[in-house]
Amino acid sequence: ERLGRAGWRGQVGQEFRIPISGGGYLRLFPVCLIRRAINHINKREGQPAVIYLHPWEIDHEQPRIRAGIKSRFRHYTNLDKTEEKVKHLLSSFNFAPIGQVLEIA
């Protein structure tokens, strides 16, 4: 249920460690699992979660290139479902720019 954690140093040596997930994981995992993980992070850990995606991941009509089965799976699986999944998550949780969440903007 844990999303990966990204860490970096901010101003005056402040370190940020936040749960982050997206890209292929966002496309592959069912929305109920993603919601559960975000709820866990928000409520039990008292932290925000970061969700990201690449612009091409909502373009289910993008041209297909010839590639091996592994690359095709990684790049094209659930492209047709990603936009609705993101809309669902946006309507289910509060989101804000990362600078605002970290109080650095």
UniProtKB/TrEMBL annotation:
It holds the Pfam family DUF3473. InterPro entries: DUF3473. Residues 16-102 form the DUF3473 domain. It comes from the Bacteria. This is DUF3473 domain-containing protein. It comes from Candidatus Scalindua rubra.
